Automatic annotation (TrEMBL), chain A:
Superkingdom, natural source: Bacteria
Gene name of the record: oppD_4
GO molecular function, one term: ATP hydrolysis activity
Membrane topology: Peripheral membrane protein
Family: Belongs to the ABC transporter superfamily.
Taxonomic lineage from the root: Bacteria, Pseudomonadati, Pseudomonadota, Alphaproteobacteria, Rhodobacterales
InterPro entries xrefs: AAA+_ATPase (IPR003593), ABC_Ni/Peptide_Import (IPR050388), ABC_transporter-like_ATP-bd (IPR003439), Oligopep_ABC_C (IPR013563), P-loop_NTPase (IPR027417)
BP GO terms, sorted: peptide transport; transmembrane transport
Protein name: Oligopeptide transport ATP-binding protein OppD
UniProtKB/TrEMBL annotation, chain B:
Function: Part of the ABC transporter complex GsiABCD involved in glutathione import. Responsible for energy coupling to the transport system.
Primary residence: membrane
Subunit structure: The complex is composed of two ATP-binding proteins (GsiA), two transmembrane proteins (GsiC and GsiD) and a solute-binding protein (GsiB).
Protein name: Glutathione import ATP-binding protein GsiA
Keywords in alphabetical order: ATP-binding, Cell inner membrane, Cell membrane, Membrane, Nucleotide-binding, Translocase, Transport
Protein family membership: Belongs to the ABC transporter superfamily. Glutathione importer (TC 3.A.1.5.11) family.
Top-level taxonomic group: Bacteria
GO BP terms: transmembrane transport
């Protein structure tokens, strides 16, 4: 059975120039698998992730036939019930650790809070878990990092701390929104391997939102490609390079490659018909 | 002629027991018209080298020579900024949110002590492929790629010889990255610029640069040509590791 089932999801923002539709009728389901959502900025991929957790702030509007988490429609829950879902059931790693971490609280306290929020236990137990989790995201000097404030750690380390914090409550679904875009190439795979290990080990579902086609094809089972609020193509992650849609092909071709030297990179030419085509079911 | 020469460069932050050595004994030399890349992980010191050159990292020792002129301390004179300019990673953060493109460029031109400002602003906008209709827009009315074009125009305002590019495209979408990298390549040919470019992205560096230095923990571990990188022949173990990490296993 699928963990999460989404039918006809819309995210709308009323503006002075009329209603702007950031997500336009997206349907997909997530099993105990790794689902990638790729697209450029403005394609609606992050909005899709946030809408699942009802994190779209007013005046933004989320509408859908249903957003079912194991049969329970998240859109029908009260805000209080929703707080129980966030973190414990579905957890989210956001794009930028600078804005996700509290700048005036030490890393250690924030990690321990994340643990104690959803688990009963002593402070020393929380501390032990926090250090263990930091080590899991390959932070060598965990004791020192526990005492550090967010501004004292690098962007890359900040994002690893975020990942540790989100995994501490042991959620069923992890929505990772560009989780490794701030990380070095050499650590990216390491961190994704950790996430990957957890997803498999705990039977979690992963929604991996990214602009990085190569990373997604490597670390996901299935990929949804989004363009202007709709899904334009769904494919098996390992067959991403044989993608049919001209948008997907265009994205792949605009990447510089080590095995292909050229003076100019090919530039994507957008076809207005891409945004008008109906959304593909994922 | 050597555009940029760095010898035994040490850069550090803090002092006494809090001291962090960000760059340790770096040596590099960039010929005029060359494009030189610095790659490494975050914290490897690659951006710090750029910041030491521009005077943004005041604690350093060693020798930095720009077109034969030896720099000292953190103060840079006006002539320096006519020679060297920097493009930062995040175009969202590096533009004043309440200044129009016109104000940003006019003020920069004014600070460089240039005349004919009106004509120069128009020229700069054409140079970076934005055109005149963007002239009176505010940063929030521009996309990320357009903002980075404004940042590049601002850097070009004083007609510099050397551009320091600090991850100029890592905040951009790949299709926009392609456009900006193409622009940077064209500008280099057109104005005969010298680039010192920092990136964590090996394919981007290989595409843009003739030579590159691999950094780790503040040290340059290897200097090689892009051709060597493309052939997959770096000598140093760490460079090979980086290379493996940036090529997806098939």
């Amino acid at each position: 059975m699928s963990l999460l089932d989404i039918e006809d999801l819309w995210v709308r923002f009323p503006t002075r120039q009329g209603v702007f539709d950031a997500v336009r009728g997206v349907s997909f389901s997530l099993g105990r698998e790794r689902l990638g959502i790729v697209g450029e900025s403005g394609s609606g991929k992050s909005m899709t992730g946030r809408a699942i957790l009802r994190l779209i702030r007013k005046p933004g509007i989320v509408e859908a036939s249903h957003v079912n988490l194991e049969g329970r429609d998240l859109l029908k829950l009260s805000e209080r019930e929703m707080r129980e879902v966030r973190g414990k059931q579905i957890s989210m790693v956001m794009q930028d650790p600078k804005f996700s971490l509290n700048p005036v609280v030490t890393v250690g306290e924030q990690l321990m809070e994340a643990y104690l929020q959803h688990n009963s236990g002593s402070k020393s137990r929380a501390r032990k878990m926090a250090i263990e989790m930091l080590e899991n995201v390959s932070i060598r000097d965990a004791e020192r990092v526990m005492r550090a404030y967010p501004h004292e750690v690098s962007g890359g380390m900040g994002q690893r701390i975020m990942i540790a914090m989100m995994l501490i409550p042991n959620p069923k679904i992890l929505i990772a929104d560009e989780p490794t875009s701030a990380l070095d190439v050499s650590v990216q795979r390491q961190v994704l391997n950790i996430m990957d290990g957890l997803v498999k080990e705990r039977g979690m579902g992963l929604i991996f939102i990214s602009h990085d086609l190569n990373l997604v094809s490597e670390f996901c089972d299935r990929v949804l490609i989004m363009y202007s609020g709709r899904i334009v193509e769904v494919c098996e992650a390992n067959k991403l390079h044989q993608a049919q849609h001209p948008y997907t092909q265009g994205l792949l071709n605009s990447l510089p490659r080590l095995d292909d030297k050229r003076t100019h990179l090919s530039v994507l030419t957008r076809d207005p018909s891409w945004s008008n085509a109906p959304s593909v079911r994922g | 002629m050597t555009a940029l020469e760095i010898r035994d460069l040490d850069v550090w932050f803090g002092h006494a027991h809090d001291r962090v050595d960000a760059v340790k004994g770096a040596n590099l030399s960039v010929m005029q018209g060359e494009s030189f890349g610095l790659v490494g992980e975050s914290g490897s010191g690659k951006s710090t080298i750029l910041r030491a050159i521009t005077g943004l990292a005041p604690q350093w020792s060693g020798t930095i020579e720009v077109e034969g002129q030896t720099l000292s301390g953190a103060k840079r004179d006006r002539a320096f900024f006519r020679t060297v300019q920097m493009v930062f990673q995040d175009p969202y953060a590096s533009l004043h949110p309440r200044h129009t493109v016109d104000q940003v460029l006019s003020e920069t031109l004014h600070l460089h002590g240039l005349d004919n400002i009106d004509k120069r602003v128009a020229g700069l906008l054409d140079d970076v492929g934005l055109g005149q209709r963007f002239r009176f827009r505010y940063p929030h009315q521009l996309s990320g790629g357009q903002r980075q074009r404004v940042a590049i125009a601002r850097a070009l305002a004083g007609e510099p010889d050397i551009l320091l590019l600090d991850e100029p495209t890592s905040a951009l979408d790949v299709s926009v990255q392609a456009e900006v990298l193409n622009l940077l390549a064209d500008l280099r040919t057109k104005h005969g610029l010298t680039y010192l470019m920092v990136s964590h992205d090996l394919p981007v560096i290989a595409h843009m640069c003739d030579q590159l230095a691999v950094m780790r923990n503040g040290e340059i571990v290897e200097v090689m040509s892009s051709a060597t990188l493309r052939m997959g022949n770096p000598r140093h173990e760490y460079s090979q590791e980086l290379l493996r990490a940036s090529v997806a296993p098939q």
